[in-house]
Structures are given as C-alpha cells and as structure tokens.
Design a protein that fits this description.
Low-confidence stretches: 2-22
Radius of gyration: 19 Å
Helix content: over 70%
Order of helices and strands: HEEHHHHHHH
Largest sheet: 2 strands, antiparallel
Strand content: 5-15%
Length: about 180
C-alpha cells in the first residue's frame, strides 16, 4: 500500500513540475520553419530585469528594434531574420554587456541560453533549406549592426537587451498558428 502511495506522490509531483513547462511551449512558424518555443520562459527572464536594464539605458533617441523594422520582414524571410537576430544577441549583445548585478548576469545568461536553443533549431531549418534569406533581411540586420557599432559597446548592449520585449512580441504575434 505504501509503495503505491509513493508512486502516486511521485507522479503528482512530476506532473506539477513538468506540466507548466510543456503548457507554455508554443508552435511558431517562421517561413517554412516550425519551432517549439517557450515564450513565457523568455518573457519571465526578461521581465525580472526589464526595469533595471531600461533604467540603465541613457540613450533614448535611438532604437534598434523599431516596429517598422519588424513590419517589413516578409513571412518567407522571417526564419532568416530571426536566425540573424538571435546571432546578433548571442554573439554581439550579450558578449559586450557588463552586468550591473548578479541578477542581471543570471537573467541575461538565461536569455542567451534560450536564444541559443532557438538558434540551434533554426540552424536545422537552414540546413534543410527551409530558411530563405532575402536582401531585405540582410539589409535590416546590417542596419542594426551599424547602429550598435556607432555606440559604446556596453551602452549599445544595454539598449539592445532593453528592447528584447520587442523581439519577443514580434515572435509571438506574427508567428503562432
């Protein structure tokens, strides 16, 4: 009898631990590429640092991720655009950011790991020729890189991290089925 109760408790605990994670994973479509992404987890990481990071952003007249930037991306180029955006964040933004606290360091590390995971899946789509890169995506990514490089790198990194919510919003609104 006791063994059955222990099994039941383990089952209840495992369902309560793993259910929310699976429940938050969304199927997103970027061109021909379909990804399973836990947007809520990414939102949670960002929301924990949003106010601090945005308060550290002293340059208010420049934005990297504008609404018009995302509006111009065609559905068939969205996979390529996202792949390059995540590469930009992982290889440039997070690399040049000097965290102001251990909380910021932990959460930006968590964001970077989430982005790396999505980027890995996008790389598979690219290898299967499901990730079309057109001129529009390349031009927009180049514009973001140029704007970033025109600022002090840590200042630019703070600004870019503070704008992660725009990227999350674009991913969620434009690409769910």
């Amino acid at each position: 009898m006791m063994k059955g109760f222990e099994t039941f408790i383990c089952l209840v605990i495992s369902v309560s631990i793993y259910q929310p994670l699976g429940a938050e994973t969304k199927r997103l479509h970027f061109g021909q590429c379909t990804l399973m992404v836990n947007l809520q987890e990414i939102r949670d990481y960002f929301s924990e640092i949003k106010q601090i990071i945005q308060a550290e952003d002293t340059i208010t007249d420049i934005r990297f991720l504008t609404e018009s930037l995302f509006q111009g991306i065609q559905a068939e180029e969205s996979c390529c655009f996202l792949r390059h955006m995540l590469r930009f964040y992982v290889e440039t933004v997070f690399k040049h950011h000097t965290p102001s606290s251990s909380l910021i360091e932990r959460r930006t590390s968590s964001l970077a790991n989430s982005f790396l995971s999505i980027k890995r899946d996008l790389r598979q789509c690219s290898a299967q020729l499901q990730c079309h890169c057109g001129e529009e995506s390349k031009v927009r990514i180049e514009e973001i890189h140029n704007a970033f490089e025109n600022l002090d790198f840590n200042t630019a990194a703070v600004k870019a991290i503070g704008e992660v919510d725009s990227l999350i919003h674009w991913m969620a609104q434009s690409h769910q089925n």
